């Protein structure tokens, strides 16, 4: 529900208006940055009755509320909490759904630090993790145990972008009393709303497209009515807090996210199609392409695609691959993505237990907001250097 209580609008209108109430800010368009820990009660009666809108700066403030209300409206959620990073959002969501002795199912395609958390911290806590083929769909039903409490999905998956059949997975999970979590960082709620497709919790690394400028670390978790009470309690018990300046920057980025995502989408599809025709490329992994194995599911459930995808090069000497990477001028080499700049990083699938092991070097590309022709020219020049 929006802070203004108005009816749902189109996605671009939602991005501009959600969580924003200028009348409460003396007419200023943006909610100010509230720096503060202590909040004063007006009277002893209010103190004893805890009669106050904001009780402590860690739990809530007008700045926090502006972003959480906006995200709840965009996600069609009962509530949203913020975390200091995308990984923190993932781990908090997992802690909110499991107890010692529980079993969880996690897609083999998840973000690797998520996998590390399951294999270390959750394991020490007595939570068992089983990794499943992200392409299972309804067949995931055969993997449930009596103590399976949750299924973690990420669609499209990290690195090779498998699209999961979230409605089928959610139906199987809910029949057995398990909750479904979805890492929705790739699409954002602008292109996909996991809670509308059966997920109970939707997770985002707001570091990426929400912030959009490669200068903020922030995460969010939005939950439906069933999952919200325990998520809210867990988040509070962990003492998580995000700095108000980072929240303000995330709010500012949110307002232009639709415009940026549309540009990322057009540019990435164009570059991906160009790469499909390159003799050095064995395959392009982008759900928005007709040739991608997950294209039908993506087309059914998603309203768009972001700027992140991968390619597999044909087998080449390691030195040649490094020459290609070093020859690029517009593509930076660095982790994370979702900013205005184009990026490229090599990767392997050694951590995966259920995945085709490629013959050639895998590269993940994020297509930024530069001119498409300039990006293609940069890649073409790098391929020429690689060949030479």
Automatic annotation (TrEMBL):
This is Cystathionine beta-lyase. It comes from Terrihabitans soli. CDD domains: CGS_like. Keywords: Lyase, Pyridoxal phosphate. The modification N6-(pyridoxal phosphate)lysine is found at residue 208. Belongs to the trans-sulfuration enzymes family. Its cofactor is pyridoxal 5'-phosphate. The keyword Lyase applies. Pfam families: Cys_Met_Meta_PP (PF01053). Gene3D superfamilies: Aspartate Aminotransferase, domain 1, Type I PLP-dependent aspartate aminotransferase-like (Major domain). GO terms for biological process: L-cysteine catabolic process to pyruvate; transsulfuration. GO terms for molecular function: cysteine-S-conjugate beta-lyase activity; pyridoxal phosphate binding.
């Amino acid at each position: 529900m929006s802070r203004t209580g108005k009816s749902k609008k189109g996605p671009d209108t939602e991005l501009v208006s959600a969580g924003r109430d200028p009348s409460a800010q003396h007419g200023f368009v943006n909610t100010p940055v509230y720096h503060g820990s202590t909040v004063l009660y007006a009277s002893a009666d209010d103190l004893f009755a805890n009669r106050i809108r904001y009780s402590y700066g860690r739990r809530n403030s007008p700045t926090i509320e502006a972003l959480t209300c906006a995200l709840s409206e965009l996600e069609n959620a009962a509530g949203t909490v913020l975390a200091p990073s995308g990984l923190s959002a993932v781990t908090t969501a997992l802690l909110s759904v499991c107890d010692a002795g529980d079993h969880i199912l996690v897609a083999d395609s998840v973000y690797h630090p998520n996998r590390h958390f399951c294999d270390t911290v959750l394991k020490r806590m007595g939570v068992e993790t089983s990794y499943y083929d992200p392409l299972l769909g309804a067949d995931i039903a055969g993997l449930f145990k009596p103590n399976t409490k949750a299924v973690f999905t990420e669609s499209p998956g990290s690195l090779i972008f498998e699209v999961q059949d979230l409605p089928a997975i959610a139906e199987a999970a809910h029949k057995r009393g398990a909750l479904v979590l979805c890492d929705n960082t790739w699409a954002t709620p602008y292109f996909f709303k996991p809670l509308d497709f059966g997920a109970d919790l939707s997770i985002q690394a707001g570091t990426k497209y929400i912030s959009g400028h490669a200068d903020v670390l922030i995460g969010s978790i939005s939950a439906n009515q069933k999952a919200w009470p325990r998520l809210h309690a867990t988040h509070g018990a962990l003492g998580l807090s995000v700095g108000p300046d980072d929240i303000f920057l995330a709010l500012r980025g949110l307002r232009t996210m639709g415009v940026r995502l549309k540009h990322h989408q057009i540019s990435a599809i164009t570059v991906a199609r160009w790469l499909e025709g390159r003799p050095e490329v064995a395959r392009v992994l982008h759900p928005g392409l007709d040739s991608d194995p997950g294209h039908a599911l993506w087309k059914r459930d998603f309203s768009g695609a972001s700027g992140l995808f991968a390619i597999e090069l044909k087998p080449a000497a390691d030195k040649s691959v490094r020459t290609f990477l070093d020859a690029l001028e517009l593509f930076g080499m660095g982790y994370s993505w979702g900013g205005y700049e184009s990026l490229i990083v090599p990767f392997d699938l050694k951590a995966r237990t259920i995945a085709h092991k490629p013959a050639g070097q895998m590269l993940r590309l994020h297509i930024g907001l530069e001119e498409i022709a300039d990006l293609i020219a940069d890649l073409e020049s790098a391929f020429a250097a690689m060949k030479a």
